[in-house]
Specification:
The chain is mostly helical. The protein has helices at residues 38-55, 60-84, 95-98, and strands spanning 11-13, 17-19. The chain has a two-stranded antiparallel ribbon with strand order 1-2. A hairpin with a 3-residue loop joins strand 1 (11-13) and strand 2 (17-19). The longest helix is centred in the last third of the chain and has 25 residues, at 60-84. The radius of gyration is 18 Å and the shape is flat.
Length: 100
């Protein structure tokens, strides 16, 4: 039986592990108006196609392991770029946007 997405769960796992203690304080991040430049997206798509070709020759268990590793690498590439990019909007530097 599948749990409803809205049903309380202390722990669940999608791309990252999620812990939701009852009455806990949560930090929520949003990706507001900024996105990766098209050239970066194209390069990542090219790497993804190359990776998918390599997966054709391995068994399913190893495929799952390699996909997880690859997705972590892609996440780190994107996160690193966004962390170093200085020209995008800097919402958290605006004190008004920090007030809830």
């Amino acid at each position: 039986m599948n749990k409803s997405n809205l049903e309380y769960q202390f722990y669940y796992h999608r791309n990252l592990p999620h812990y939701q203690p009852k009455d806990g304080v949560f930090f929520i991040t949003y990706r507001l108006a900024f996105s990766l430049p098209q050239i970066i997206l194209e390069e990542l798509a090219k790497k993804r196609k190359e990776f998918d070709k390599k997966l054709n020759n391995i068994n399913n268990k190893e495929k799952d392991k390699q996909k997880l590793i690859y997705n972590k690498i892609l996440f780190n590439i994107k996160d690193d770029f966004l962390g170093k990019f200085k020209k995008g909007p800097h919402w958290l530097k605006n004190k008004e946007s920090l007030i809830l």
